[in-house]
Amino acid sequence: MPSLDRIDLELLSALAEDHRATVVALSERLGLSRNTVQARMTRLDASGAFLSYQRALSPQVLGFPIAAYISVTVRQHEIPRIREHLAQVPEVLQAHGLSGAVDLLVRVACRDAQHLFDTDARILAIDGVERTETSLVMEEIIPYRITPLMALARSGR
Hints:
Strand order of the largest sheet: 2-3-1-4
Largest sheet: 4 strands, antiparallel
Shape: elongated
Radius of gyration: 20 Å
Structural class: alpha+beta
Order of helices and strands: HHHEHEEHEH
């Protein structure tokens, strides 16, 4: 990932405020040429600065109002194969490998409690998965955000 300069950070801040902004609107807002903005956007995209655009879609709107995290304990040497199996479970939105007592933290979305129970059972049935523990999301206290980090990056601290 290349280091970000002031213009990159301003461009990313403008996108964080309005993720639908066009290149023309961004160039006008930042006082840059359209070509400069487009070139920087292309470079930032190629460097992996942008996460999946799927993050902006709500599972609730699709009919999956139940959100949960499933803590998964696995046989460590089987994580690559387990990862492949988890990727085949459509209810799995995200999974992270962790250090500590829990090996994987899997975020899922389900229609109802029975669907969550069945999804947990499918994960537990994956060969190499030893144990699961499900925690229901009651409320999102702080939604995904990046602007405080961008402000910190701009301040140089």
